[in-house]
Amino acid sequence: MQRINFNEMKNTVKKAFLNAGLPDAKADICAQIHTESSCDGIYSHGVNRVARFIDYVNKGWVDINAEPSLVKSLGVIEIYDGNRGVGITNALFAVEQATDIAHKNGMGIVALRNTTHWMRGGTYGWKIAEKGLAAICWTNTESCMPAWGAKDTRLGNNPFVMAVPRESGPLVLDMAMSQYSYGKLQVTRLKGEKLPFPGGYDKDGILTDEPGPIEQSMRILPTGYWKGSGMAVLLDAMAALLSAGSPTNAIDKIEEGSCTGASQIFMVFDPAQLGGSDFTHQMANSVADYIKTSEPAEGQSEVNYPGERSTKNRHENLHQGIPVDDGVWAEVIALAEGKTK
């Protein structure tokens, strides 16, 4: 494990994307987002995803020149086809469109279908909250989790994001419908560690905190057991309904990597037109302060509100450098130098 300066990481990742054929503007945006994700401590969807994304580009699963196209406009709701373009730039486009609609109407919804992996879902919550707006976003995915009571994978883990603006740091929830995402399993395995709590079943159906056997069995545990399973089903159905796009069972038939053909929803709310900006910040502060003044449980030193650890990681990693696995970084450098396996 080593630490890399933010700008060095971004520039190296950008070179790798340029070598993969991305136009300069898209390479720069994607490198920025991947580096920000790692800087915030979400390594699994930051620099760790660079090689996989480039592999998808090389296989033609991501169209690096495609742009979203408008399918339908219904006032506060717009539907776009992502044309299987770059997931990050497609999602950021959807954020901007939903933001414009929200400024005009108090709320705006963009439903994006036929897109590709948006990487870290929380990115879009953070970007919206930093504009002083609130957000609810989610995506469906290919099957990677069994329904509650099942052995075979029929559900996506369908990441769900909510964000509320706050001057001293927004409240941002970014969670998969599994107890741990596959990215978290990978990061934990690379560190040679166990999960804090059991995260799924091994091939024999035994609940375990060892990430490797869960990755092999693909029997990750739905968050909240049957509740997470039910949420995954409905998030999938709602994403497909609102975008007139593909649900998980249709994405499975595409067979072009993780999230290719996914349906995503971006809901943006303008607090200034609701309770007002002052009310919003006072309310958000009261929520955060109420959580922070909780009495810590046994073995805990503090209680955090959603998004607080990401902010702390960002400050630390900007100062000390961003941690990255040696093998992962070597692979990114090779891609940046135009070397192939």
CATH topology (level 3) name of the largest domain: Ribosomal Protein S8, Chain: A, domain 1
CATH architecture of the largest domain: 2-Layer Sandwich
- Assigned CATH class of the largest domain: Alpha Beta
Give the strand order, joined by hyphens, for the main sheet. 2-3-4-13-5-8-9
Strand content: 15-25%
Number of strands: 14
- Oligomerization state of this entry? single chain
Q: Can you say what the CATH homologous superfamily of the largest domain is?
A: Malate/L-lactate/L-sulpholactate dehydrogenase, NADPH binding domain
Overall spatial form: globular
Biggest β-sheet: count, sense, barrel?
A: 7 strands, mixed
Q: What is the CA-atom radius of gyration, in angstroms?
A: 20 Å
Q: What structural category do the secondary elements indicate? A: alpha+beta
Q: Give the total of domains.
A: 2
Ranges where pLDDT stays below 50 over 5 or more residues in a row are none
